[in-house]
Design goal:
By secondary structure, the protein is of the alpha/beta class. The chain contains eleven helices and seven strands. It starts with a helix and ends in an 18-residue tail after the last helix. It binds nicotinamide-adenine-dinucleotide (NAD). It comes from Gulo gulo. InterPro entries: NAD(P)-bd_dom_sf, Sc_DH/Rdtase_CS, SDR_fam, SDR_family_member_7. GO terms for molecular function: oxidoreductase activity. This is Dehydrogenase/reductase SDR family member 7.
Amino acid sequence: MSWELLLWLLALCALVALVVQLLRFLRADGDLTLMWAEWQGRRPEWELTDMVIWVTGASSGIGEELAYQLSKLGVSLVLSARRVQELERVKRRCLENGNLKEKDILILPLDLTDRSSHEAATKVVLQEFGKIDILVNNAGRSQRSLGVDTSLDVFKELIELNYLGTVSLTLCVLPHMIERKQGKIVTVNSLLGIISAPLSTGYCASKHALRGFFNCLRAELATYPGIVVSNICPGPVQSNIVKNSLIGDVQKTVGVDTDQSHKMATSRCVRLMLISMANDLKEVWIADQPFLLITYLWQYMPTWAWWLTNKLGKKRIENFKNGLDADISYFKAWKTKHD
Ligand SMILES: NC(=O)c1ccc[n+]([C@@H]2O[C@H](COP(=O)([O-])OP(=O)(O)OC[C@H]3O[C@@H](n4cnc5c(N)ncnc54)[C@H](O)[C@@H]3O)[C@@H](O)[C@H]2O)c1
């Protein structure tokens, strides 16, 4: 074989490898660090056992699914939200399908906006289990209304709940982690804590604030390498978030279920969250396409990203005004299925 042919063959192989990697990248449903951790990293089944894990917003959606997946790992669970009956339902399912016993799950009712209750709640967990290894700040609420049609009370409520409530609970738990020089603070943020979209002015503001707070906190805790501060940033995921979203008035929510088949399955999002926790990742992006690509674009080419955001944003508003899920139909063909 001539040298020239050999070189052509090598170049062809390199091209095929590049195309394969590009296709993999396009089909990924997490950022590259997360995908690497899923492929080569530590398994949640090895890393997260024997831990005390406190999950807020455990009565529905991502928090509920997190409780189910954690209950299979042999941890001690603290389940918090406002509705005790719903938490009891989640606890029953954890006991039926997981590896935990009654004494391993504590139901701890908590309203995140009632900041005066956070210190006492933290004491209850410490009295019950003696330590808190992971705090999962998951409880939160979204918004579906144009900024111009939204009362100031809605912005206030979203900041009180998503931002101040989360910060307050974290500040109650943090001294305990500092004393032990270890722990993980895992906050379910959103891609909307990085990028922006119409109909979510107040929600985006609260999640951007949260990301700023936790990124600074992580820098301040650099002298405690055993304390991990992690931002989980999902794109659209199946849950009750849209149904519970505030519309222009703080007393009003969307209130109805819309088709969610285009969104990532809750179980897949939670599995990737567990991989992130097992590998101490600082920030992860979890989303199907096109949301991941749009986020990369925001990161590297903001001006182009704005062009695309404005195009998709028009569709988002149109969908919502037609009574559909705001994100339902821009790029159905891109959707990747993992479940
Ligand atoms: N589902 C998505 O598409 C998506 C995308 C990005 C980020 N998130 C984030 O994920 C987190 C979980 O949301 P979800 O999608 O599971 O929605 P969800 O509505 O199904 O669950 C929200 C949970 O938060 C709890 N909660 C609400 N207000 C509370 C309060 N005042 N005090 C205590 N608990 C309260 C609810 O009871 C519920 O358990 C939120 O922080 C949300 O911003 C969701």
